[in-house]
Amino acid sequence: MDFRHELQKRILIGEGAMGTLLYINGIDQCYEELNILEPERIENIHATYVEAGADILQSNTYGANYIKLKRYGLEDQVSKINRKGIEIARKAAGKDAFVFGTIGASRSFRKSDLNLEEIKRSFREQLYSLLMAQPDGIILETYYDLEEIETVLEIARNETQLPIIANVSLHEIGYLQNGVHLSEALGRLEAIGADVVGVNCRLGPYHMIRALEEVPLPAQAHLAVYPNASLPDFEDGRLVYAAVPEYFETSALELRKQGARVIGGCCGTTPMHIEAIKRAIGSLKPVMEKTVKRRKIEINDTGRKDTTVAIAEKAKRERTILIELDPPKKLGIEDFMAGVDALYEAGADSITLADNSLATPRISNGALGMLIKNNTGHNPLIHLTCRDRNLIGLQSHLMGLDTVGLNEILVVTGDPSKIGDFPGATSVYDLSSFDLISLIKQFNDGLSYSGQPLGQKTNFRIAAAFNPNVRYLAKAVERMEKKIKCGAQSFLTQPIYSESQIEEVYQATRHLETPIFLGIMPLTSSRNAEYLHNEVPGIKLSDPVRKAMAAAANDPVKARAEGMAIAKSLAEAAADRFNGLYFITPFLRYDMTAELTKHIRTIDSKRLVEVAAYE
After folding, report:
1. pLDDT, tens digit, for every residue of 312-363?
2. What does the alpha-carbon distance between residue 245 and residue 274 come to, in Å, rounded to a whole number?
3. Is residue 529 part of a domain?
4. If you count Cβ atoms within 10 Å of the first and of the last residue's Cβ in the chain, which end, N or C, has fewer?
């Protein structure tokens, strides 16, 4: 049989889930390794699907790439596992079914975990291994990231003339996670050379039918759909899919109406579901034309009205001072709000509010930010960590911040929980700082992470963290450049305690147009200095600074004076090179950062007078 020829005249039935059948039988290991360890088990599952009516078998190789097999110590078995997967499927298929080599996606929603070069290398190795075993075609499936599937599809199309099925996955109906509509995404895959384009996984039949209602029939390619049995439930520690096979029978007829030329099953489906699809489709001819529903999507282009000048924009033109004032660890904010008033009176342009710094619970910075904005009229900068909220919570938090008009955001990874007051607490890190910056930028385009319209565009100004206290400064600058590409509009640095280091940072970043706020934190004592140097990640003090603080160790007044002298000297050096200054208040000692702010404002005023006199 010729796959392309058969596809022109009839609807082909795909296989159902492999992992589901292994899972419900208590298999708890790398499924792809079973190609080597228990090939009869895999063959029996394939054979059961053929008996149920499947026209297309998929090799048990979804995760059989270097990246995923390395988790099990099997990275040297990539070729063997993939070739064996085709061999097993071929034996079960006989002359009744086509055998397609399966290649699953490598990226999760944390795009920054894997760059495209890593993905390409891993994909090529798996592809070549599958092609050595001479499959009837290749199927790419469960790709949430359009960039990834476009990249690997192009490689596959250049390497083989075999038929290729390219399936994306959706978080929400009709849209990929980057906001591209399903119809556009499938059109792009068709243009690259896929013979069949479609969707698989995540959604059940109902939502996939709705998604395909908005997709026209491809010009040259054909449509595929592999729905999950249903949305999963979680019972007694196990995933359970509730949809019965009879439901798939009626759903298959609806999927045919939407133009599906290949219909199979994904997570939760069994041979009974495939048998139901076969029973429904029978000898029905493919649909040759359909009416496409057009969803009207409205996004308010204006977003939230905000007359305040963005901090980053102000720093491009003039001296701009940010001051961090940590939210209190205990209830009661009288001292904190007094500090806010004192810092603005001293000349701060904005107060920045950390997000449970050092992994220690504090009063919500969002709540304090609202109070500051309402009481002072100033727009504070809200820190947002990747540590404390999962992908759902981050999006909810961002929508809340936009709703109350807190649009100045600093994205930080966040100190791991193990260094804080609750070392057993979970550090989430669903997203990296790069991913979170990209997500906020997408919010500014009016789209959620899943690609669904938010109803209006947000107006977040995105700052990012820059740690210059590293061995290789050039590498840190490369990270900055990557964050700029993701959407960062300004940077706040970790505190610096060396004038020579300030110069090094200036020289290493002077090619960037993105404003940098150089971090300065006054020292309060020798103990404070040694703690910061030896125990706080990302902070290193110079030897002269440590010695100066040690000399004043026994006199608190002298220690404060020495700490302020060091901070003023550093701030003056930073002010000569950077418009943006970022003063970090130690232990709610806002008198110190207020004094530092007044010092710089006084110097700036004197310079303006001198310039005016000269002119």
Report:
1. 999 999 999 999 999 999 999 999 999 999 999 999 999 999 999 989 999 9
2. 8
3. no
4. C
Based on the domain organization, do 264 and 338 belong to the same domain?
no
What pLDDT is attached to residue 239? 54
Q: Do 138 and 272 fall within a single domain?
A: yes
In a domain, 215, yes or no: yes
In this structure, the answer to whether residues 351 and 448 fall within a common structural domain is yes
The whole-model pTM stands at: 0.81
- Of 170, 2, 142, 118, the C-alpha closest to 58 is 142
Three-class secondary structure of residue 167 per DSSP: strand
Among the candidates 223, 252, 281, a domain finishes at: 281
- CA-CA distances (angstroms) from residue 274 to 168, 244, 325, 380? 21, 11, 61, 57
- Under 8 Å CB-to-CB from 70, ≥6 apart: which residues? none
Residue type at 286? Answer: P
Residue pair 125/78 in contact by the 8 Å Cβ criterion: yes
Per the structure, how many domains does the chain have? 2
SS3 of 97, please?
coil
Give me the CATH number covering residue 91. Answer: 3.20.20.330
Q: Within this chain, do residues 41 and 163 fall inside the same structural domain, yes or no? A: yes
Q: How far is CA 131 from CA 69, 83, 87, 124, 384, in A?
A: 19, 8, 12, 10, 46
Cα–Cα distance for residue pair 383/368, rounded to 1 Å: 12
Instruction: Please indicate, yes or no, if residue 103 is contained in any of the structural domains.
Output: yes
Which stretches of 94-145 are DSSP H helices?
A: 116-132
Q: Do residues 449 and 587 share a domain?
A: yes
Residues 37 and 166 in one domain: yes
In a domain, 598, yes or no: yes
State residue 243's pLDDT score: 59
Looking at 228-362, list the stretches that DSSP marks H as alpha helix, in order from N- to C-terminal side: 245-257, 271-281, 311-317, 334-346
What pLDDT digit, counting tens, does each position of 407-451 carry? 999 999 998 898 888 988 999 999 999 999 999 999 999 989 888
| Distance between CA atoms of residues 256 and 286, nearest Å | 7
Give the domain range for residue 461: 322-523+566-614
